[in-house]
């Protein structure tokens, strides 16, 4: 949350920030799937494909067939990231694959939440998914490709994500593999998929926003249980939105009730519309929160399999799930480059050098890493390394804070086989890390730098650093490791003409070390300019002087002694992890918050109503 302006009182800014915060959080933002919009956009400019798509639909509707045999579809995940935070972990990918397998075989643990009147038509789709074990050329793989990009995000109506040359990742044979791209998508779009005959062969697959993929890591509530991918794979297999993308529309499935429109959030059955007995809002092809989705129908199953037989038949003969090994392979970690001895980051993003020590070309390997022997993380690598060649890799983030931390990184299963020389697999590094974020501040003075001064303060107005002796036409490059909290940067000009642009080209900018987009960039001001910024889960707020929260640390039950002098009885809680990701958003009832769904750790708690909001740090220890 960032606010930047000139010569406005501090109190006024706090009031504005509070109003914005409260307004934004009393109503849920509605995110959308882009599959239908992208299909319409493509067909409007491709008459031939529009006809072909219509013919496929007619065949499917006339020849719906039942199916009772399970199949396995190979999946290749393309992780396209700009910064380390977007480079999601293998564990998050494994979680997502597990969600797909359970949702498409109706072995999901929340299947019991399906309303009783819909249970007779709830379906096992009889489809499983595997991480691809061999490439289209018959080489070993672990099913995960990682590509770093210079693109800030990928728009719904663009194709850059699908091509190496445009900063994306080129698809594997789309007739034999399900290609899933995970990246930063433009705001408001959860993901999209290409319908059968609904686009170019090279763009055929599923694209998911990295913040709505899997169940942990970067996944953000309320789309944080992997159901966005389930929904989009449904489109890829020719399912429409359950409301037919129009008022009381048709999804061409005979056992799904007509409904007026998309459902958001969580509904209570029966939620009626279009003269039905209740919307099927728990269907994966609606828009409800991940926690409220739990089923496909028999009609959807028959439509999917009829679509496979008519358009995606080559999936049934794909060898992508069959393992390939190349014996006598040898790979290892030759060096750990980062973190440095002392690093400002939590999590840290290890940078390692992978080396092919063997005589064969290295096509795939898994890298295991851990801090202090705790949870072991895995990062898959795919590529083409000749003997003795190396590749520098930034691994997904791992939590670490404190002095004398031991990072261990090693390789396993080069080319899908046992390593012939395990002695060169591993490297170790001792380092220290601070629970915070590295912020860079650049200040360029003009011809009268002596008129300028600045200071950086924390939320308690304690000065972190300052300078009132600046030189003319000089660039000052500053870096600070700041804890997750709120701050303000104040710059002054004693003459009142700022530092741009009549007497030089001065400016100042603030940005996070892992980002190329500035928090702020300012050139023009008069006597003073102030930038407010927050790191992590914090926002402009007050300490909860009238609230007692106990016990803290807690084992899962948190109690609120509510002494708020408020006319509004509704009180809400938002909980963020130390990455700034919202992990829980709930109404507080009976002065109690249940945290049992969360993992152990340090969290930021924000309690608010329409009039006030407060924040606390809480510790969860089970």
Q: What's the tally of helices?
A: 6
* Average predicted confidence as pLDDT: 86
- Shape assignment: globular
What share of residues is helical? 10-25%
* Alpha-carbon Rg, integer: 27 Å
Describe the structure.
By secondary structure, the protein is mostly beta strands. The chain contains six helices and 34 strands. The chain has helices spanning 10-25, 35-44, 47-62, 90-103, 227-236, 298-310; strands at residues 2-5, 32-33, 71-81, 127-131, 144-148, 178-183, 189-193, 206-209, 331-338, 342-344, 351-356, 362-371, 377-385, 390-394, 402-412, 426-434, 437-444, 452-458, 463-467, 475-482, 486-493, 500-501, 504-505, 507-512, 520-522, 528-534, 542-543, 547-550, 557-562, 572-576, 582-587, 592-594, 601-608, 613-620. Strands 2, 3, 4, 5, 6, 7 and 8 form a seven-stranded mixed β-sheet that branches. Strands 1-26-21-18-19 form a five-stranded antiparallel β-sheet, with no helix packed on it. A five-stranded mixed β-sheet has the order 10-16-15-12-13, with no helix packed on it. α3 crosses α6 (298-310). The longest helix has 16 residues, at 10-25. The relative contact order is 0.11.
């Amino acid at each position: 949350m960032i606010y930047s302006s000139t010569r406005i009182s501090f109190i006024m800014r706090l009031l504005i920030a509070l109003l914005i915060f409260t307004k934004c959080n009393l109503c849920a933002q509605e995110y959308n799937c882009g599959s239908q919009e992208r299909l319409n956009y493509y067909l409007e400019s491709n008459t031939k494909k529009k006809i072909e798509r219509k013919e496929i639909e007619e065949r499917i509707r006339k020849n719906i067939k039942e199916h009772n045999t399970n199949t396995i579809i190979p999946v290749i995940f393309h992780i396209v990231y700009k910064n380390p935070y977007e480079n999601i972990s293998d564990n998050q990918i494994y979680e997502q694959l597990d969600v797909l397998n359970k949702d498409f075989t109706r072995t999901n643990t929340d299947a019991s939440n399906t309303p009783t009147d819909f249970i007779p038509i709830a379906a096992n789709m009889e489809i499983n998914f595997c991480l691809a074990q061999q490439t289209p050329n018959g080489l070993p793989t672990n099913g995960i490709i990682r590509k770093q990009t210079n693109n800030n995000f990928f728009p719904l109506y663009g194709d850059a994500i699908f091509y190496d040359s445009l900063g994306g990742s080129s698809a594997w044979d789309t007739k034999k593999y399900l290609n899933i791209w995970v990246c930063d998508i433009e705001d408001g779009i959860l993901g999209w998929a290409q319908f059968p005959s609904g686009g170019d062969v090279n763009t055929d697959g599923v694209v998911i926003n990295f913040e709505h993929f899997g169940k942990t890591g970067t996944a953000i509530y309320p789309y944080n249980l992997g159901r966005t991918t389930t929904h989009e794979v449904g489109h890829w297999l020719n399912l429409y939105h359950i409301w037919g993308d129009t008022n009381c529309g048709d999804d061409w499935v005979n056992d799904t009730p007509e409904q007026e429109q998309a459902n958001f959030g969580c509904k209570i059955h029966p939620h009626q519309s279009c003269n039905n007995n209740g919307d099927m809002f728990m269907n994966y092809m609606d828009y409800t929160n991940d926690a409220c989705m739990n089923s496909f129908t028999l009609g959807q199953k028959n439509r999917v399999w009829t679509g496979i037989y008519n358009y995606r038949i080559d999936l049934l003969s794909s060898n992508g799930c069959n393992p390939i090994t190349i014996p006598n392979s040898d790979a290892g970690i030759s060096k750990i480059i980062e973190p440095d001895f002392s690093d400002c980051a939590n999590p840290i993003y290890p940078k390692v050098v992978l080396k092919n020590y063997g005589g064969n070309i290295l096509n795939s390997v898994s890298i295991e890493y851990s801090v202090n022997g705790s949870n072991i993380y895995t990062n898959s690598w795919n590529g083409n390394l000749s003997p003795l060649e190396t590749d520098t890799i930034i691994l997904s983030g791992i939590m670490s804070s404190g002095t004398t931390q031991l990072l261990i990184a090693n390789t396993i299963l080069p080319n899908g086989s046992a390593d012939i020389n395990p002695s060169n697999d591993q490297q170790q590094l001792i380092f220290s890390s601070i629970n915070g974020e590295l912020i860079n501040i650049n200040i360029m003075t003009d011809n009268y730098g002596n008129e300028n001064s600045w200071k950086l303060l924390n939320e308690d107005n304690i000065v972190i650093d300052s300078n009132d002796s600046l030189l003319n036409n000089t660039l000052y490059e500053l870096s600070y490791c700041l804890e997750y909290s709120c701050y303000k940067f104040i710059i002054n000009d004693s003459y009142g003409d700022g530092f741009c642009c009549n007497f030089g080209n001065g400016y100042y900018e603030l940005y996070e070390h892992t980002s190329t987009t500035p928090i702020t960039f300012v050139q023009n001001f008069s006597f003073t300019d102030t930038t407010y910024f927050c790191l992590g889960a914090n926002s402009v707020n007050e300490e909860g002087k009238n609230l007692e929260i106990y016990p803290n640390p807690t084992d899962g039950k948190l109690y609120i002694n509510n002494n708020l002098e408020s006319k509004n009885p509704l009180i809400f809680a938002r909980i963020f992890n130390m990455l700034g990701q919202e992990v829980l958003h709930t109404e507080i009832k009976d002065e109690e918050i249940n945290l049992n769904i969360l993992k152990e750790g340090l969290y930021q708690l924000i309690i608010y109503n329409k009039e006030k909001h407060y924040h606390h740090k809480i510790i969860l220890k089970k």
